[in-house]
Amino acid sequence: MTKITTVVFDVGKVLFEWDLRHLFAKLIADKAELEYFVTHVVTPEWHFQHDAGRPLAEMTAERIALYPKYENEIDAYRTRFNETIPGPVTGSLEIVHELAARAVPLFAITNFGAEFWEMFRPTQPIFDHFGDIVVSGVEKMIKPDPDIYALALRRFGLKPGEAIFIDDNHDNVVSARANGFAAHHFTDAEKLRRALMDLNLLD
Questions:
Q1: In the CATH scheme, what is the homologous superfamily, with its name and number, of domain 6-17+88-198?
Q2: pTM greater than 0.90
Q3: What InterPro entries does UniProt report for this protein, alphabetically (predicted)?
Q4: Cα 161-163-187 angle, rounded to 5 deg
Q5: Could you report the per-residue pLDDT of 67-123, keeping only the tens digit for each?
Q6: For residue 81, what are the contacts with CB-CB under 8 A and spacing of at least 6?
């Protein structure tokens, strides 16, 4: 049995909170209108097109044509995306620091748009601890596609079974397990800490 030596994180909702409402609540005061906006106009499903590699300019121009009333809000999505990320998930960054202090190799696989990653990555020095990060929007492949896990193994220099992958999305966890990783379905940092202790990666 291969020993797990390496930890591979997802980013959104594992290391950092994310919700479109954090930005758009600043722009749309009426709660019912806000819910309409994030379920019909700038929705997670539409946003995921950028995660998969679609250019922002193309996406937003198309959306403004469909919803001209919301041109300013759709443009804010493009320019103020970091405001959809209010801060770290409680306890998660502490785990990263502890793993780094123990010289545990750290990597990440994230569904994140390339242009948004360029905006977000420089604001977070926690990623300096990571040897490499596979970003879906850069690679134009998205979890749970098996190809992104194969790419990660090659890029990270890992053999199947050497790393545990941590993700909040169950489908991504299932695919990771089928494609060379042990995996942990993230619900909170304390349960993750216990799982890493069981693997002797944390004290």
A1: HAD superfamily/HAD-like (3.40.50.1000)
A2: yes
A3: HAD-like_sf, HAD-SF_hydro_IA, HAD_2, HAD_sf, PGP-like_dom2
A4: 115
A5: 999 999 999 999 999 999 999 999 999 999 999 999 999 999 999 999 999 999 999
A6: 23, 116, 119, 120
